[in-house]
Amino acid sequence: MSENFHQPVDAAKVPRFAGHATFMRLPAVTASQGLDIALAGIPWDGGTTNRAGARHGPREVRNYSSLMRSTHHVFKTEPFKVANIADVGDLAVNPIDLQDSLRLIEAGVAEIVAAGALPLCVGGDHLATLPVLRAVARKAPVGLIHFDAHSDTNDTYFGNNAYTHGTPFRRAIEERLLDPRRVVQIGIRGSIYGPDEHDWAIAQGIRIIYMEEFSRRGPDEIMAEARDIVGEDPAYVTFDIDSIDPSMAPGTGTPEIGGLSTREAQQLVRLLDGLNLVGADLVEVSPPFDLAGMTSIAGATIMFELMCVLARQVDRNRKEGA
Amino acid sequence: MSENFHQPVDAAKVPRFAGHATFMRLPAVTASQGLDIALAGIPWDGGTTNRAGARHGPREVRNYSSLMRSTHHVFKTEPFKVANIADVGDLAVNPIDLQDSLRLIEAGVAEIVAAGALPLCVGGDHLATLPVLRAVARKAPVGLIHFDAHSDTNDTYFGNNAYTHGTPFRRAIEERLLDPRRVVQIGIRGSIYGPDEHDWAIAQGIRIIYMEEFSRRGPDEIMAEARDIVGEDPAYVTFDIDSIDPSMAPGTGTPEIGGLSTREAQQLVRLLDGLNLVGADLVEVSPPFDLAGMTSIAGATIMFELMCVLARQVDRNRKEGA
Amino acid sequence: MSENFHQPVDAAKVPRFAGHATFMRLPAVTASQGLDIALAGIPWDGGTTNRAGARHGPREVRNYSSLMRSTHHVFKTEPFKVANIADVGDLAVNPIDLQDSLRLIEAGVAEIVAAGALPLCVGGDHLATLPVLRAVARKAPVGLIHFDAHSDTNDTYFGNNAYTHGTPFRRAIEERLLDPRRVVQIGIRGSIYGPDEHDWAIAQGIRIIYMEEFSRRGPDEIMAEARDIVGEDPAYVTFDIDSIDPSMAPGTGTPEIGGLSTREAQQLVRLLDGLNLVGADLVEVSPPFDLAGMTSIAGATIMFELMCVLARQVDRNRKEGA
Amino acid sequence: MSENFHQPVDAAKVPRFAGHATFMRLPAVTASQGLDIALAGIPWDGGTTNRAGARHGPREVRNYSSLMRSTHHVFKTEPFKVANIADVGDLAVNPIDLQDSLRLIEAGVAEIVAAGALPLCVGGDHLATLPVLRAVARKAPVGLIHFDAHSDTNDTYFGNNAYTHGTPFRRAIEERLLDPRRVVQIGIRGSIYGPDEHDWAIAQGIRIIYMEEFSRRGPDEIMAEARDIVGEDPAYVTFDIDSIDPSMAPGTGTPEIGGLSTREAQQLVRLLDGLNLVGADLVEVSPPFDLAGMTSIAGATIMFELMCVLARQVDRNRKEGA
Amino acid sequence: MSENFHQPVDAAKVPRFAGHATFMRLPAVTASQGLDIALAGIPWDGGTTNRAGARHGPREVRNYSSLMRSTHHVFKTEPFKVANIADVGDLAVNPIDLQDSLRLIEAGVAEIVAAGALPLCVGGDHLATLPVLRAVARKAPVGLIHFDAHSDTNDTYFGNNAYTHGTPFRRAIEERLLDPRRVVQIGIRGSIYGPDEHDWAIAQGIRIIYMEEFSRRGPDEIMAEARDIVGEDPAYVTFDIDSIDPSMAPGTGTPEIGGLSTREAQQLVRLLDGLNLVGADLVEVSPPFDLAGMTSIAGATIMFELMCVLARQVDRNRKEGA
Amino acid sequence: MSENFHQPVDAAKVPRFAGHATFMRLPAVTASQGLDIALAGIPWDGGTTNRAGARHGPREVRNYSSLMRSTHHVFKTEPFKVANIADVGDLAVNPIDLQDSLRLIEAGVAEIVAAGALPLCVGGDHLATLPVLRAVARKAPVGLIHFDAHSDTNDTYFGNNAYTHGTPFRRAIEERLLDPRRVVQIGIRGSIYGPDEHDWAIAQGIRIIYMEEFSRRGPDEIMAEARDIVGEDPAYVTFDIDSIDPSMAPGTGTPEIGGLSTREAQQLVRLLDGLNLVGADLVEVSPPFDLAGMTSIAGATIMFELMCVLARQVDRNRKEGA
Lengths: 322, 322, 322, 322, 322, 322
Hints:
Distance between the termini of chain A: 12 Å
Largest sheet of chain A: 8 strands, parallel
Mean pLDDT of chain A: 96
InterPro entries (chains A, B, C, D, E, F): Agmatinase-rel, Ureohydrolase, Ureohydrolase_dom_sf, Ureohydrolase_Mn_BS
Shape of chain A: globular
Structural class of chain A: alpha/beta
Strand content of chain A: 15-25%
Low-confidence stretches of chain A: none
Oligomer: homohexamer
CATH superfamily of chain A: Ureohydrolase domain
CATH architecture of chain A: 3-Layer(aba) Sandwich
Helix content of chain A: 25-40%
Binding site for Mn(2+) 1 (chains A, B, C, D, E, F): 148, 150, 152, 240, 242
CATH class of chain A: Alpha Beta
Largest interface: A-D, 32 and 31 residues
Keywords (chains A, B, C, D, E, F): Hydrolase, Manganese, Metal-binding
Strand order of the largest sheet of chain A: 2-1-3-8-7-4-5-6
Number of strands of chain A: 8
Radius of gyration of chain A: 18 Å
Order of helices and strands of chain A: EHHEHEHEHEHEHEHEH
GO molecular function, one term (chains A, B, C, D, E, F): metal ion binding
Protein name (chains A, B, C, D, E, F): Agmatinase
């Protein structure tokens, strides 16, 4: 069946630095029909309160995703053989109007979902995950595995502004897009606005795993607990690049030292394998603050890891369905 | 009288790299009362449609303004002896709400004006000049000398968005803040959206001087014409750093090659001397895209040149008033 | 007729930082049929003897060409309305085999020529121009307007290596691709290997205009002479980005201070208008040595200027043919 | 009581990129009276023997300390509620005269001490710690916890120069400012000048913990030993940023690979809690060698961690005193 | 005996930033006679298929090796006292001709070997190790300890190109330069071209230790196994800088996240002590992609560590021979 | 005769990126005997009052001087055929002791002078020119052509410090090393400490040519006057890289916008030809503030231009002497 699947450009025929920059060097397509996984950019950072720049994330992650090859060296999975994957381009956004952008992003993801594909989006700032959740959780709240330095469950900012990249998961819970008892946040750290900053989240049932706990227990144990929390029902994965240490991912708006190593991050993502995922995203890669593409390389690799996990799920489901 | 004026820190006592970074190493004050010239930052880039970052402009221009000394080497003017000048800090802005920011900026400048001081603002993107004009032109339209690569007189963007950094001078004319027949734009260049992009501006009476005409005629002749156009009535000066060539000012959102040299820019600003100015600004310095502070150094120096022109006006007026 | 022409993405609907990076935000097409002008990358620097990196040029010039708009502000030409233009992708190359690359590049350009389109190529190092000339000058030698810091008419290098980015125009003359009496080189400068380094070129009839002569006489006079030399017969234009001063185009392998300003370079390219061109290229943009995209921005703008000249020729020819 | 304490600017009212850059966005004050903790810069690198630049450290650490929030996420300590803290500016230095600088720095710290405040200084190169110790250890030798890649106990340099950033702790012991049996150095590594380079220090009783031992034993065990060594008597903490790995803190003059991770560094600093500290410093942040502010961010965060430890001590002492 | 050995410039007399940049500040000599260890550069990256630049490696590693001092802080070895070491300059290469370069490099190393010195080479890309092996393994196949992110045992590339930096160890085995059962590869990771990419290598008997296994088992256990595999017979060590994590060594052509820390890398190299080595190299440092010299510093330090291991072997052999 | 002269490495045999980095790829020699021109580094910036880093200048100028070829393209001079030139290394300095450094530098240059060679030195900060003048003007005061943004004739700094990079030419006049009526300063600009800052210099008879006058009159006219002022008696040339615009030479401690273009700078240096020079220097290249080697490239090229002028003088003198 895979003979009809989209394949990346062959690096032994077209060098990695050649050709148009698409995600994973896959074909650029204009619609998600027939796809198992749709790779989409969300070039928007209208929710950013300090250092903007994540709007440039999709383009640079595409650029550096040229470094990815076709097979996962641990899973031995060949994602492009077991799933039909393509680059569906960037979702429409409005750089000047926040609410219009939220509508446009939701509509873009809804099209992917309607086509039966799993969305794997690259932001953009973390507020973009809110409209994605509106599209993937239309029927029922989903679970969430959330890698981040920040809980992003604040209430308002600058008066009554309810929509910033510090608030998406509070809104998502209020909108019943997430089941808070099936939400786990990993990598949280850094100074906070007050000793009670996370109280609301914890009161909802969110499990916050700070870096200090992660350091003590390690990826295996942490992910075992995370998988228990999320369970077998549909869940979403959101990976904020600032969960990774700023020495490894400096190109982001709100860096916090003492973060995950990329080695740990890869291990964490691989341990998502087997969950029942409705989509995933990678957010907050901000090229204007990056150094020599370091963050885009990390981002592209995490995206590849997420894609392999999704492809394995597609493969499993196809085989079970067969 | 100048014994009561604010003085910058003495570099022969405190090294240039030491101390808190304020504009020109002047004291930071909290109100404009008693000032002749108020140096204010506008850390906001909510009107930016492509590459954001000018929100960081005030801080970095402050940082590099430490390189400025106390006397203009051509005018021999000592601005801090002839005018009372201080750093009044950054105007309040709202990074998440465009209209609220426009209100806040106008209010901030209005306070400066009410105190009898001339505002010299550092942006921020060029939309910030609109609320500044609302504050300085409350009584009657003013003239404008506008250095820029772009005319910034577009109508709308992304549907019906009327307020971006590409539209401020159209809005200002519509709001009767500017007298279009007393507006001159210098340095305009670069590809445009259509052959008629500047027709509206020209129809209003704006005089657009493209780089090509500037190159042929030179600063002296161009400024003679500009001064004729603006005349003796109150006028405002706005200096978009992208009027300068991107090799000399790379840190900006919308670079266009073939721009002014800094040598030409300094000559142009000095030729403003003698006009009847109600204020001035420097905008679009975007540190995330800068290199080794090059743009902030250029910006700080242009700010110093503008400050000297304003200080000479204060001095003239004081002497005439005496 | 232009209703069938390819159009760039509309920046008022899709922000400049969004979407796939193609030349001028035009559609990516796979064949040149129906095109008037084919924009092609040549991601290859196998002829480079010192600092490699021009292989990355096409991708970054594409990236920054997003800053270009649809209309030339001096000509008022709308290139996409008067000519059918698209991005035909990168020509095939072989990063490991020089002679194979020369064959592949020639074949790629030959396809463009066979389709009736004018090639506008982005290198890659300057040796790439040799196979381009092999494709465009198959029937008869052509004239050449050559902007560069270096004459590139050396004989051999490192023993008997006849093919490097320092030799293409010697080879092209030997292969009768160029009529040396119709070749003019502008911007030549920098230390040389011996006092006789340019003797061979001059003996062939090439007109070398050093920077010093250019500085004295200026663009208008220089281009009047250059147009006389090239005449009305078919000619090719090659623009080495190192003709521009390294402060404005640092991202190149062999920088020489004292070069053209971008303002002069734009003026020179515009003065090509009206020649009988068979194609053009921009070479030696080397992103690994670039700073904040400065060289890619300059390169993309020069490419836009060249494209407008070619489009005007297409328009003239179509009208004359009509 | 805390209602009278200085508070940082509220980031929900003034964005982090706005306002004057002071340490932790606290008010700038001119004297230490009434303070519990005085944050002071020492913009001086006159003791540097290889790559200078730490003179620019205080300004950039101030700049990036804007990223800090008000509460420690592990301790839940709110330092600005339990201690009165402000930015007292930069101590006077003389960039041209080493001995004069040592006198000036000592005098500056002595004023802080006389006011009853704990000094938390940001260098500057490590020689600056010598005059700080002269001010804080006037009555009796103190203990020292010293995080560094280098022991800094050399004797002389370049003939008989006794005062460089490689000698401060030898001088401090000779001057009886430190009790060598209460000195512990953590993180020492890198090639040395001879097998006996550390013999003098060890002979004095200093406990040197090399990175290799640290790697084997881990932060908890190491700090348990360090606390035993220092005991309950007054002690000082000096944190050389080059103790952290150069991938996480590249902006320093004498980088040594194989260093502490920021995660380990934070853990180490937190384990200082409960000691009897007379002050602390952070040194050797050298912005000219930094990348995207990475080192200043790390430095500002370590400074925040140190400040929280000091604030908790102030709080404990106040409660005990009450 | 060491009084006749070459000594580095004394940093207490000539500052580290002064003087000509040679490896370890040793004298530059023109021949290897009398040396125990010859430090040589191989400024060549003709085998690179993606991002070139390693040709600039030797110059920058020389530059940053000025930071090295004379004594290993763990071994307490003084390499310049126990072995005669010098910088023999760069081996001849041909930047335009791959096969000629392979011949030249082999000849250059053969001279070192003939003089009785151990070669310690700095590349250059990894294909350079092939001609080095041709020189050091002329009599019999040797063992190999290979630190790398990639196995470099591919067969061909771009058609039938057998010689790239992805193929050297396949060629070396085919040419019987290596005994595959005595080859161990450590640090391998990253996406691969197919699930069978490493099958050939494994079938030959090569032991591939992926990063995941390394992370679980740690340096001590891994090196114990590696030493068992290599045994007491002659072996070569090749250290590809991309084995180290790109956050610590970004200046390389084919970065893969999740790599060795420098701390681990130093530990690994130290555990080579006692093997029977015929030479060593450090490859793939690519300065055009580096940041603030970070990769060159790491490379110079690894080179110092390798040099100390070789010097200890020289010392042992001399003592045993005595 | 030239067969015995030192020759640079042949770039057609050793690529420019290969080999040890010496000035102009010339041999490194240890004494000046037999030389006509001695190229020497002065790695010292102890006179710097703001941003240090020029101590790293010699090494990076050496590095980028690899880009220079053997023949001047305007003069057609082959410097290495008409003069015996070599790299005599860096003069001894003391990074910790200013007065000791002044003594060491004078002694180093005195050796060159004693050997009968002309010194061409690369700094280092501008205070280094004072000890050079002490060595070259031992018998009688010399004239000076001084390219700079700053007059460097201040009196004291920070109390009574008489020796900084802002004072060398005042000291030189006081010490009767310079004849002030034969001193001309070109390119002076930027804000000053007071309207009388240059009064002392002018009172001595120094001719200060500000950038504004230079812009009006141009290089030919300016240098005609400068040559008249200096006359036929012995003169020294000092070239501060900050005379060049910071867009072309950003790597310097005290940048001032509005400077010379490199094109103008080259023209100025060439117009020195025919003067009676006793030596020359290039100072204030500060690599830590540089971008992509831009300033070092400009510095190396200016050094090459100065060397050609000196070589032509050697050639003239030899022919006249013959």
